[in-house]
Amino acid sequence: MKTKKIILPDSKMPTHYYNIVGDMKNKPLQPLHPATKKPITIEQLSGIFAEELAKQELSTERYIEIPEEVQQLYRIYRCTPMVRAYGLEKALDTPAKIYFKNESVSPIGSHKTNTAIPQAYYNSKQGIKHLTTETGAGQWGSAMSMATQHFGIDLKVFMVKVSFNQKPYRKLMMNTYGADVIASPSNTTAAGRAALAKDPNDSGSLGIAISEAVEMAMQHPEDTRYCLGSVLNHVVLHQTIIGEESLKQMEMFGDYPDVVIGCFGGGSNFGGIGFPFVRENLINGKKTRVIAIEPQSCPKLTRGEFQYDFGDTAGLTPLLPMYTLGHNFHPSDIHAGGLRYHGAGSIVSQLLKDKLIEAQAIPQLETLAAGVLFARTEGIIPAPESAHAIAGAIREAKRAKEEGIAKTIVFNLSGHGQVDLYAYEQYLSGKLKDTTISDAELRRTIDELEKII
Ligand SMILES: *Cc1c(COP(=O)(O)O)cnc(C)c1O
Fold first, then answer.
1. What distance in angstroms lies between residue 200's CA and the mean position of ligand 1's atoms?
2. Which domain covers residue 301, as residue numbers?
3. For residue 196, what are the CA distances in angstroms to 51, 158, 183, 437, 444?
4. Considering its fold, how many domains does the chain have in total?
5. Residue 245 covered by a domain
6. DSSP code of 72?
7. CA 151/CA 370 separation, integer angstroms
8. Is residue 259 part of a domain?
9. Of 99, 376, 409, 415, which has the highest C-beta tally within 10 A?
């Protein structure tokens, strides 16, 4: 019988996260303090994040040990399977071999738990009692709700209003784990009130929700911190467990990828699977193409500008060097809520600038068609976010067929779509449309940025 999937035994599980900054010739530019515009210090970052996470954010150490307790909790669902997509290959009639890393097997259904667990852990070690965060599609809020309840930390989640209304089951998951969920923009913060004053029907964005969560955390520095589910270096760092496992699993398959693909919101699942393979390119002479797939309606990597920008709308977060559409960019209400974010993490941005990774934008209808094909051939209904990675893999597999090359493609299935069926309902009933953005529209929010570089 053909091998369908490989799972590592506990004895072979990675014990360290990989920090690609240690191997980058051009390091990412430093984050700046939002007020002074000087490089931010660990001490300043520690006012918002747990100190250990602030240290990781600025670290250049190549490897960082995964704490015992975190490794133990990972065992609830890790190692996640590396699966050969025979069904998809057959449907595409391609000579390419397609594999996917199945991060949807985590208790909340996506890769977000990989960083939620260590973030809750480091905060609890420091004696933090309350955390605040935001969530787009609800995956991050669910993951953080699960992790904080394990460590006895209380959590407030600002949920982007469009998702709050579209995804009541995500909210209920968070409530079940014990978290408090607030639709953003809300009346509970100055940032939320400012957004509502501008537009009372504002459907929200990750940028506004982050402002609300950061603002609330900063009011109680003695026992409250904020946490973020993507973009930042320490978040991507925790996600590298995906790529480290994948390297070993591909070795056990006796194969090695020519192409590695991840969908792209802020860069955490993409960097998580991709960076260990970029390392092999940088230091072991491998030549894998590592490709980020973003939605056509939120094209920061393919049409954004490399600039310092805030992570949020109100400008409370550090200024990060990133490919960005401007923090006032308001993405259309596409169903891949986790990808509706204006900027990209600073490591990914530097790697893209240096052409060490690639990026492509794909329209919504193509991604949902890919999601449906994947569900029908591999049995898993993917998250609309993950469907972007599948669509990217399908494009590569079709090209392999045209060129008659048997290349090996690995993509990250960042999550399942069982709580996102509304998107499929809209797609199957023909109600979804592709949206395009004019250059003028994109320029408007990019030109508003203060040019620091
Ligand atoms: C949050 C999320 C994403 C996007 O975030 P990244 O940090 O870019 O990975 C992608 N897929 C799923 C399933 C998500 O929950």
1. 28
2. 5-9+68-109+234-446
3. 33, 15, 12, 24, 21
4. 1
5. yes
6. H
7. 38
8. yes
9. 415
- What strands lie across the sheet with 180-184, from one edge to the other? 180-184, 154-160, 130-135, 224-226
Domain containing 95 — which CATH number?
3.40.50.1100
* Helix, strand or coil, per DSSP, at residue 173: helix
For residue 188, tell me if it sits in a domain: no
Closest residue by Cα to atom 13, ligand 1, is: 415
- Atom index in ligand 1 nearest the CA of residue 266 equals 8
CA–CA separation, 136 and 123 (whole Å): 22
Domain annotation covers residue 182? no
- What string of pLDDT tens digits covers the 453 residues of the chain? 999 999 999 999 999 999 999 999 999 999 999 999 999 999 999 999 999 999 999 999 999 999 999 999 999 999 999 999 999 999 999 999 999 999 999 999 999 999 999 999 999 999 999 999 999 889 999 999 999 999 999 999 999 998 899 889 999 999 999 999 999 999 999 999 999 999 999 999 888 999 999 999 999 999 999 999 999 999 999 999 999 999 999 999 999 999 999 999 999 999 999 999 999 999 999 999 999 999 999 999 999 999 999 999 889 899 999 999 999 998 887 888 789 899 999 999 999 999 999 999 999 999 999 999 999 999 999 999 999 999 999 999 999 999 999 999 999 999 999 998 999 999 999 999 998 899 999 999 999 999 998
Residues with CB under 6 A from ligand 1: 110, 112, 137, 139-140, 230, 263-270, 338-339, 383, 385-386, 414-415
Name which residue sits closest to atom 1 of ligand 1, judged by CA. Answer: 338
Contact 322, 355 (CB under 8 A): no
Which residue's CA lies nearest to atom 15 of ligand 1? 139
In this prediction the pTM is 0.97
